[in-house]
Amino acid sequence: MMLEKIEELLKEVNNLKASNAEEIEQLRLKYLSKKGEITALMADFRNVAADQKKVVGMKINELKQAAMQKINELKEQNAEAEESADDIDLTRSAYPIALGTRHPLTIVKNQIIDIFQRMGFTLAEGPEIDDDLHVFTKLNFAADHPARDMQDTFFIEQSASEVTKNILLRSHTSNDQSRIMERQQPPIRVICPGRVYRNEAISARAHCFFHQLEGLYIDKNVSFTDLKQVLLTFARELFGPDTKIRLRPSYFPFTEPSAEMDISCHICGGKGCGFCKHTGWVEILGCGMVDPNVLEACGIDSKVYTGYAFGLGIERITNLKYRVADLRMFSENDVRFLDEFVSAD
């Protein structure tokens, strides 16, 4: 009876198959572990008749040796298969994988940063989620300014007692400037790039998020002339040496006097075309002298120091350089659109 059981197990062992290491381990446990088939046979060996012990003992030993040899063979085969496997991920893109490029907004942002860094500006970045104190209050926004309305700003938390404690998605990168001014005394010369958010209807000309870059320079005897020369240098570096600029009076809560800056249309050379609406000029940024109230709110003596600030939209500059028809294309990640900027990188 036991000899028949041994022969049956011997046939099983000789025909063992496994496709991975886990299956091999399960087979080892089944036949060679303390609770395995062969161990159970050895435990029953004491019940075998004395005249059969020699034959049965030899058969059990033969079975054990066969099982150990088969398990080792399966382990070797599995190891060889793993070494020779191609390890193909069927979910990845097919070869050859095309190399990507920088996003057009990143390309233009880096160009702008490079220009201002060569003029002595350092790079500073701040939080996209900030409090009203740094986004509005310290920048001379009145308590009832429309920018604080839900129609313009995304609020995360609103304080019932004090407006300065409201938490919101910043609507401009000027919060970086207020934080820098409150922790650092002049001279200050920084540029602050980053993403900003406004509650606007998404269309070809507007989005609920976009990218800005703002600049700030504060020191003794800083004048509007200094601002104009820096912006002229910037425009010529970015759009070409023949670029002209003009400054038109405007209003911003944080600067006084304030201005909008236009550049001569680089498509028609200022002669007038459909792109510049036949005016010869294209608006690119806002600027002005930092309001004394802003300096004082941030702990800087406005009687000793003056400064200028400017801010521009990176999407707008990118549109001027590459004439992108729809602002939404910048955030859709359509590879066909992004491929058009490979040579610009």
UniProtKB/TrEMBL annotation:
The record places domain Aminoacyl-transfer RNA synthetases class-II family profile at 108-320
Supply the PROSITE patterns for this chain.
Answer: AA_TRNA_LIGASE_II (PS50862)
Where is the protein situated, by its record's location annotation? Answer: Cytoplasm
Keyword Methyltransferase applies: no
What's in the keyword line of the UniProt record? Aminoacyl-tRNA synthetase, ATP-binding, Cytoplasm, Ligase, Magnesium, Metal-binding, Nucleotide-binding, Protein biosynthesis
- Report the CDD domains cross-referenced here: PheRS_alpha_core
According to its UniProt entry, one GO biological process term is: phenylalanyl-tRNA aminoacylation
**Full protein name:** Phenylalanine--tRNA ligase alpha subunit
Return the cofactor note field. Answer: Binds 2 magnesium ions per tetramer.
Q: Name one Pfam family in it.
A: tRNA-synt_2d
Q: Where are the transmembrane segments?
A: none
Q: Which cofactor does it need?
A: Mg(2+)
* Matching HAMAP family: Phe_tRNA_synth_alpha1 (MF_00281)
Q: Which InterPro entries has this protein been placed in?
A: aa-tRNA-synth_II, aa-tRNA-synth_II/BPL/LPL, Phe-tRNA-synth_IIc_asu, Phe-tRNA_ligase_II_N, Phe_tRNA_ligase_alpha1_bac, Phenylalanyl-tRNA_Synthase, tRNA-bd_arm
Top-down, what is the taxonomic lineage of the species of origin?
Bacteria, Pseudomonadati, Bacteroidota, Bacteroidia, Bacteroidales
User: What PANTHER family does this protein map onto?
Assistant: PHENYLALANINE--TRNA LIGASE, MITOCHONDRIAL, PHENYLALANYL-TRNA SYNTHETASE
